[in-house]
Amino acid sequence: MAHADDAQAAKQALRVRGLAARRQQQNREALGREICRKLAELPEYQAAATVMFYVNMPQEVDTRHFLPIARQQGKRVAIPYCCEGRIEIYRWESMEELEKSKFGVLEPKPELCRQRGRAIEPGEIDLVVVPGVAFDPRGGRLGHGKGYYDGLLKQMRRGTPFVALAFESQMVPGIPMLPHDVAMHKVITERTIYVR
Prior knowledge:
This protein is an alpha/beta fold. It has a single domain, classed as 3-Layer(aba) Sandwich (Rossmann fold), CATH 3.40.50. It has helices spanning 2-24, 28-41, 43-47, 67-72, 110-113, 148-153, and strands at 50-52, 76-83, 86-91, 98-100, 106-108, 127-130, 134-135, 141-142, 162-165, 186-188, 193-195. Strands 3-2-1-6-9-10-11 form a seven-stranded mixed beta sheet. A two-stranded antiparallel ribbon has the order 4-5. The protein has a two-stranded antiparallel ribbon with strand order 7-8. It is globular. 36% of the residues are buried. The mean pLDDT is 91.
């Protein structure tokens, strides 16, 4: 148990560092556009019919500007939202469909979630765009510590690419990975693309 405790303590220290790096990041909007441009050039993205994006919170790499672009490119855009302690997936069409949840995250309006044809199953996703607090060059990911994304990623089809978007300032040499943690296949920053 000591090993897991040590890993959790190290993760918490890295989480503090990653959150500070995001907060202090300059030129977030311009860098976010560059990062999304690199995402759009990935063969995995170009081949994907259904792409799950996160809707960014303040200080995360901005995806909001890119969602309409993805739809114009013919993608079926999926976004996650929290429902009774688990993550569900919703077929997104416009920013007007979203409102702030109690956690301050933009999510689909509850009445829309119940509409026929809006739910998407994890097995339908061809590529997942993932947020995070810190990453390492081998695809290690550190989120906010709740485990929602790790749980959702484990439900995806085997071989589904997981691509994280981050600022270079969020990169750290190594993140302790525990058995429940899910690694990214690629991490895109404004500087480079890290491949696991």
